[in-house]
Amino acid sequence: xxxxxxxxxxxxxxxxxxxxxxxxxxxxxxxxxxxxxxxxxxxxxxxxxxxxxxxxxxxxxxxxxxxxxxxxxxxx
Length: 76
Description:
Elements lengths: L7 E2 L5 E4 L6 E6 L2 E6 L16 E3 L4 E3 L12
Antiparallel strand pairs: 1-4, 2-3, 3-4, 5-6
């Protein structure tokens, strides 16, 4: 599957898509337009959010605690 690579037109169904360059942001596609969104900050527990942000999960397509998130979409 292809993912958005920047803000702008996107030939994808509406939904959330990973940013393959960062696990701390993701793309929201709505009406054929993609925009990059940062994952929320979290200060609850450093073990859950070691970098202070939630992590985008490929399976659920939402930000989750870092230990729960599938980040296999990241480019090497």
